[in-house]
Design a protein that fits this description.
- By secondary structure, this protein is an alpha/beta fold.
- It has six helices and nine strands; from the N terminus they run βαβαβαβαβαββαββ.
- α1 (22-31) packs parallel to α6.
- The strands form two sheets. A seven-stranded mixed β-sheet has the order 3-2-1-4-5-6-7, with helices on both faces. The protein has a two-stranded antiparallel ribbon with strand order 8-9.
- 33% of the residues lie in helices and 24% in strands.
- The chain has a single domain (7-208), classed as Formyl transferase, N-terminal domain (Rossmann fold).
- The structure holds 5-O-phosphono-beta-D-ribofuranosylamine (GRF).
- Residues 17, 19-23, 52, 96-97, 117-119, 180, 183 line the site of 5-O-phosphono-beta-D-ribofuranosylamine (GRF).
Length: 213
């Protein structure tokens, strides 16, 4: 067995959070199924007060705080994040509401092994406060996107997307809740596809192969 693999050869997933961590929980819950090809090896937060830290600990997952305020530079902060990820044998890194923009160097180190979830249908509405932006623009549908992370924010190859309608009386909160429900479906699904080695990059297209029989 590959030494980087955990018990049973499951893909080791490190999750980076900054807040409530509901996407992290959705991945961890999916991992609980025996036939799921991945397990969460560590949850790291840059925010010591992130609610997701307690949620992870209550699920028996190792947690770590790497507070960016404790470092003189982004490079030092990221080195510490990397050290914790490596100490836990991380093979795939999932950003789940992680509110720091990672450096090009970090993105390169983890190229092809770094996923993010974004609450809009990229390439529309990159950046922050995107549920309100979608309502204000007047689009009739929005959704969420799981993508590989590259140095350019919210611009990496798209793995999966889910579409949700925008209702006339939606507020930022009602739309965010409808989108979040779908985030919790497609993020674990993307991790499963990655764990089953069914994702292949062709240029900026992510091709998904059929399940192996
Ligand atoms: C989600 O909407 C995600 O798409 C965005 O940040 C939010 C994080 O929520 N990147 P949670 O911490 O996973 O609950």
């Amino acid at each position: 067995m590959d030494s980087a693999m955990g018990d049973g050869g499951k893909l080791q997933v490190g999750v980076l959070i900054s807040g409530r961590g509901s996407n992290m929980v959705s991945i961890a819950e999916a991992c609980a199924a025996e036939d799921f090809p991945a397990e969460v090896c560590v949850v790291i937060s840059n925010n010591p007060k992130a609610a997701g830290l307690e949620r992870a600990a209550s699920m028996g997952i190792a947690t770590a705080v790497v507070d960016h305020h404790d470092f003189d530079s982004k490079a030092d902060f990221e080195l510490q994040v990397q050290e914790v990820l490596e100490a836990h044998g991380t093979e795939l890194v999932c950003l789940a509401g992680f509110m720091r923009v990672l450096s090009p160097e970090f993105c390169e180190t983890y190229e092809g092994r770094l996923l993010n979830i974004h609450p809009a249908l990229l390439p529309s509405f990159p950046g922050l406060n995107v549920q309100q932006a979608a309502i204000d623009y007047g689009v009739k549908f929005s959704g969420c996107t799981v993508h590989f992370v590259t140095a350019e924010v919210d611009a990496g190859p798209i793995v999966l997307q889910a579409v949700v309608p925008i209702e006339q009386d939606d507020t930022e909160d009602t739309l965010a809740a409808r989108i979040l429900e779908q985030e919790h479906v497609i993020y674990p699904e993307a991790v499963r596809l990655y764990g089953e080695r069914r994702l292949e990059l062709e240029g900026r297209r992510v091709l998904i192969s059929a399940p192996r029989t």
